[in-house]
Amino acid sequence: MAKRRNIEGIVGVYFEIDGSGAISAITVCNSSGSPLLDNAAVSLVKKIHTVSTQTANQKLSPRVNIDYELINEQ
Questions:
Q1: pLDDT at 60 over 70
Q2: Is the Cα torsion angle 51, 60, 37, 69 positive or negative in sign?
């Protein structure tokens, strides 16, 4: 849908990873200005489910930028 509408943007996403690698508390910390892209970024992080961590029982709180950019397919 975003591709059909030519929507691009960068979404800043914050989430927490607990000591077992489970992801929670997913929030948009910097909106792209498009609810469509913001929701897609949250959905993308939700699909990860768990992350392998090297630090047992330590909570991590990363912030990542997800860049949605249209590319020409030929």
A1: yes
A2: negative
Q: Does residue 43 belong to any structural domain of this protein?
A: yes
For residue 22, give the nearest of 52, 65, 66 by alpha carbon.
Answer: 52
On whether residue 26 sits in a domain, the answer given is: yes
Q: Minimal CA–CA distance to 50: which of 25, 20, 21? A: 21
pLDDT at 33: 96
Residue 1: inside a domain: no
Torsion of CA 50, 25, 44, 14, to 10 degrees: -110
State whether residue 73 is helix, strand or coil: coil
Please report, for the domain that includes residue 48, its CATH number. 3.30.1150.10
